[in-house]
Structure formats: C-alpha cells, structure tokens
Design goal:
The complex is a heterodimer of chains A (541) and B (61). Chain A is mainly alpha-helical. In chain A, 59% of the residues lie in helices and 3% in strands. Chain A is built from 17 helices and 4 strands. In chain A, the strands form 2 sheets. A two-stranded antiparallel sheet of chain A has the order 1-2. Chain B is mostly helical. The chains are: A mainly alpha (541), B mainly alpha (61).
C-alpha cells in the first residue's frame, strides 16, 4: 500500500524536476518568418470549398488576406497590414454597435418620461424626446463636435485620428490650458472626411444626445416647444461640447495630471459628469427658470404628487435604458482589441452590478420609509446606479461597483425629496436627482474607488500608470475629480442658466396657463396622443 | 439676487481652480476645492433658486 503511494510521488517529483529543468534552460532563438514561409501556406482547394463549409474550417484562411501585388503573392508586409486592419476593424465594429445601443436609449428616455407625465401631455413629451435627436444632432454636427473633439489628437484604438488635432490652448498660471477644438465643423474641414472620424462622431453624437434629452424630463408638462428646440440646440452646440472637450477632448481638466500632478487628471470613463451631470444641471437650471407646474405646490408651499399616467411605460423605459447602458459603458473603451480593451467584460459586469444594487437600495429605502416599494422610485434607483457607475466603470472592482450603485440608490431617493420639498423645484421625472446628483456622485466615486488594476495602454490622460482612488492610495485623484465637480457647478449650471434666461426673454420658455391646464398635446403639437381617451382636467388647488 | 447667486457659483469654481496655484499640499488643495464647491452650491441653491421662488406660480393669488 505504502509502495503504491510512494512510487507515483517519486514519479511526480521527477517530472516536476524535469519541467523545472526545461524552464530554466535558455529560450530557443526566435525563428524569423520570411516571405518564402508564407508561400507554403496554401488556401483550401476550390473543389473543397465548393462542397460547402459546414464546420467553418475552410472559410477565413490565407486566401482571404489581401495581397498588394499579385505577382509577388503574399508577403510579410501584407500579413502585418492585415493584422493591423483587423484590430482597427474590430474596434470600429465594436464602437459602432455600442453606439447604436446608446442611440436605442433614446427610446428608453422617451417611454420613461412620457409614462411619468400625464396622458394629456403624452404627445408633447414624446415629441421632445424625438425632436431632441434631430435638433441636437444638427447642432452637434455643425458646431458641437468641432468644439468637443477638434483637438483630441490621437485615439489609438481607432487608428489615431490625426485630422482632429487643432485644440485652442491658452496659457494660464504658466501651463497650457486646452479650451476648445477648432476643426470638424460639418465634418468637412482639414481631412475630417475620414473613416475613423466618422466612427468617433457617431459614438460621441449619441452620447451628447443622451445628455440633451435629460432636461426634457425635468421641464416636462410646461415647456414651450419653441423654447425646448432653441435650448436643445444651444446645449448640443456649446454647453455639452465645452465641458466634454475639457474632460475628453484634450482640454484642461484632462491635463490636471500632467500639469499639476493630480492623479491622472479629471477622469470620467463614460460620462457620469460629461453626460449625466451636465444634463442634470442643465435640467435644474431650466426647471428653476420655468417654475413648477400648476397644482404642484399649494400656497403654503406644500408639494402635491402629480401621478404618472402609465407605469408600464416607465419601467419598460428603465429596462431599455439599462440595456442601452451596455453600449454606453463598455463601448467607451472605443475598441475591443488592444490597449487594455479586454476590460470590456469587467466594465459590463460593473455596470450590471451597480444597476442591481441601485435598484435594490432604492426599493428597500422606499419600502422602509414610505411603506411600499414604489415603482417609479425603484426605476429611478435602477437608473441612479447606472448613472453613478458610468464614470468609474472602467476602473473599479465588482465590489466597488456594487457599493457605488447601492449608495446611488439611496442618494436618489433623498435627493428627489430634497429637490421637491426644500428647493421646491418641480422635476416631474426626477432627472435632476438621477442624472445631476448621481452623476456628481459617480465623478467623486472615481476618486475613491478606482483600484489601480486597469491598464489602458499603460497610461491615462498622458500620465503613466493606472487610475487609482483614495481608498487605494492616491488622494490627488479625488482632488482632480472634485475640481471637475466645481466646474460642473460653476460653469455648466451658470451657462445653462444664462441660456435658459435668454431663451425665455427671446422666444419664451413656458406655455400659457390655459395650455398647461388643457394639456400641451393640442396647443403645442396640434394632436392628442390618445384621441379616443376622455382626459379629465383637474381643478387648480 | 439671482445674478449674485450666479456670480457666487462662478466664484466657487474659481476658488477650486486657484487651489492649483495656492498650495501643492494635497490636504490643503482638497480643503480649498471643497470650500469652492460649497460656495457654488450656496450660490445655486441659496440664492439663484430662492430668487426665483419669490415669484413662483403657487405664491400668486
């Protein structure tokens, strides 16, 4: 019996020693591959290919590699070029498909906001969500993209993008501060008619449009369509692109690391700040200028609930948004091949976990505090988790993601109550809290939870190393994030507010009281959303 | 009052940015940036919003 045990053990030791010996031996010299070697690699015979390829073994072979000179046949440069093009092709396809997913989020917003409004405003709310796509896109194509990305320089995952290399820079405190891009208007300046620029434009456009659609929720049920149209154009042309340039386009926030030693500069992986906080603070500015809906507050300032007309639409919208978020966050790698882009799996899981914990904590909070697991606030908690994880998703562990989402779920419930009862700002869908408050929380969370394990090509914002937050040893990253928050409050809110006031004076922001009471569908849009319904108009309280 | 609130919001941002030149100490920078954010928040919630609440539709008779 003992012999039986000892003999295999001796054999195992001998084998491991052999393996160690092999490992310790000097590595064999690399074998150079020449063009002659490539001649030995032959494509499948035509007659074999003609039989069909049920198992996929003869489709996609050497015969499919593009040859630059038919007389020479396949050469090493051909092979290497094909490898490079395959990498960029994978990244193009990834970025485009995730961009299409983000575009689909527009439907989620439309259903969510329309469901949370009253039936008498359904056409108007839906039209704002559709209209913002066209209005925003035109303004962004004409001006916004140029201001945002005109100086971004190189995007390695998309093949470089050299045409976008004209950032306007001012010297402040002895350092260069990137302020806005100068090329890319109408995608037709200085070589912008470029395959990679088109991919980047599509992806950035749908991100901008996500931000632009946020104010339509906070201003719903009382926003004049003309005021909405002009405000959305200004958002897409100036407000969003300027902050996005500072964060993503090579602007001054992104260089806080290289210029002032603050971590890796302001870091916002997929846009908790750039998209959501910008949208949420713009929503706050517009909601303040518009004032609350008739009947929202009684004369003593007490708020009254104005009920959603279709909770089915609301939760369907939330699920569509959560689906689209798998484009929003993992797509922000701008690639699936090279430069650490394989983290797309971690990013998708972080996104999923934060949405779950956000939903759970919001539901539990409402259940414990108000006695029922409120559907609309559960939906808002779901979105709050997603908004909060958007900036940190590329840099945090699954545990970190779950904590960030959980905090966002509670934060959104508290914020909604604060905005409604203390600020007395009427926000029918909770956009200020979901996108503004939780967007800012997401920006701060990068500075706390980034674990230093990501590696996107060895650096971020030109600073070598991985993004690392306070809990993992780098306090300076948190400072960079907070300067981003200060900029959101001091620049984005103020600019949005000034635009809102100017639009109010020039074209008017608020509909008449009569239109508001009757519902905006007929006076603003000329047609009811549900013409066969009898809509009851409540009296003024 | 609304204009003062807007100016305070901008001033808060300016204070945060000035932290970059006032000190190189991370704790000092963090404190200054937080003070800047507090100033901006007061400008927005305490002044701008309050100015608009004075003329809110629900206060009108």
């Amino acid at each position: 019996m003992i012999k039986r045990l000892i003999l295999p053990l001796i054999a195992l030791c001998a084998l491991s020693g052999l393996a160690y010996g092999e490992a310790a031996a000097p590595a064999a010299a690399p074998v150079a591959i020449t063009d002659a070697d490539l001649k030995n690699v032959t494509p499948p015979k035509a007659e074999d290919r003609a039989k069909g390829d049920a198992d996929g073994s003869v489709t996609g072979t050497v015969g499919d590699v593009t040859v630059s000179d038919a007389k020479k046949g396949l050469t090493l440069p051909d092979l290497v070029n094909q490898v490079g093009q395959n990498k960029i092709a994978i990244n193009f396809v990834w970025t485009l498909i995730t961009g299409y997913l983000v575009m689909f989020m527009q439907l989620g917003f439309a259903l969510l906001e329309t469901g949370l409004c009253r039936a008498k405003n359904a056409n108007h709310t839906m039209m704002m969500n559709v209209g913002v796509y066209g209005i925003g896109m035109f303004a962004y194509w004409a001006v916004g993209f140029s201001l945002q990305m005109g100086g971004v320089g190189g995007v390695a995952n998309l093949g470089g993008i050299p045409p976008l290399s004209a950032e306007y820079t001012a010297t402040l405190f002895g350092k260069p501060w990137g302020l806005f891009g100068q090329t890319g208007m109408f995608l037709s300046m200085r070589g912008n008619y470029d395959v990679a620029v088109m991919v980047l434009f599509l992806f950035q456009m749908v991100f901008m449009d996500t931000g632009a659609t946020i104010p339509t929720g906070a201003a719903a049920e009382r926003w004049k369509f003309t005021g909405f149209a002009v405000t959305s154009a200004l958002f897409a042309a100036f407000t969003y692109p300027l902050f996005a340039n500072w964060a993503w386009g090579g602007g001054w926030l992104s260089t806080l690391g290289t210029n002032y030693g603050l971590g890796k500069g302001y870091v916002d992986f997929a846009g908790s700040g750039v998209v959501h906080a910008v949208g949420g603070l713009t929503a706050l500015a517009i909601a303040i200028v518009l004032g609350p809906r008739i009947g929202k507050y009684s004369r003593d300032g007490k708020p009254h609930a104005i009920l959603a007309h279709d909770i089915v639409l609301v939760l369907t919208g939330c699920l569509i948004l959560a689906f689209g978020w798998f484009g929003f966050n993992p797509g922000s790698t701008l690639g699936a091949s090279g430069n650490g882009a394989l983290r797309i799996g971690s990013i998708a899981v972080a996104t999923m976990l934060a949405s779950a914990t956000g939903m759970l904590t919001a539901m539990l909070y409402m259940w414990l505090v108000y006695g029922k697991p409120d559907a609309s606030m559960t939906g808002n908690g779901f979105l709050a988790g997603l908004v909060a994880i958007t900036a940190p998703s590329g840099f945090v562990s699954p545990i970190g993601a779950a904590i960030i989402g959980a905090i966002a779920g509670v934060l959104v419930c508290i914020s909604v109550a604060y905005v409604e009862r203390v600020l007395k700002v009427d926000d029918p869908v909770g956009a200020v809290s979901v996108h503004g408050t939780c967007g800012i929380w997401g920006v701060i969370a990068v500075g706390l939870f980034a674990d230093g394990k990501s590696n996107y090509g060895g650096s971020w914002n030109g600073v070598t190393g991985s993004v690392t937050g306070l809990f993992y040893g780098d306090s300076t990253q948190l400072i960079a994030q907070l300067i981003g928050v200060a900029t959101l409050l001091g620049f984005v809110f103020v600019l949005s507010f000034v635009f809102a006031v100017i639009v109010d004076k020039v074209v008017g922001q608020r509909t008449s009281a009569r239109s508001e009471l009757d519902g905006l569908d007929l006076p603003e849009m000329g047609a009811l959303a549900y013409p066969e319904f009898e809509i009851r108009v409540p009296s003024i309280q | 009052m609304a204009i003062l609130g807007l100016l305070l919001a901008v001033a808060g941002m300016a204070v945060s940015i000035l932290s970059l030149t006032i000190t190189a100490n991370p704790t000092g920078r963090l404190a200054i940036v937080l003070a800047g954010i507090a100033i901006s928040l007061f400008g927005i919630a305490g002044l701008v919003n309050r100015a608009y609440l004075k003329n809110a539709i629900w206060r009108k008779k």
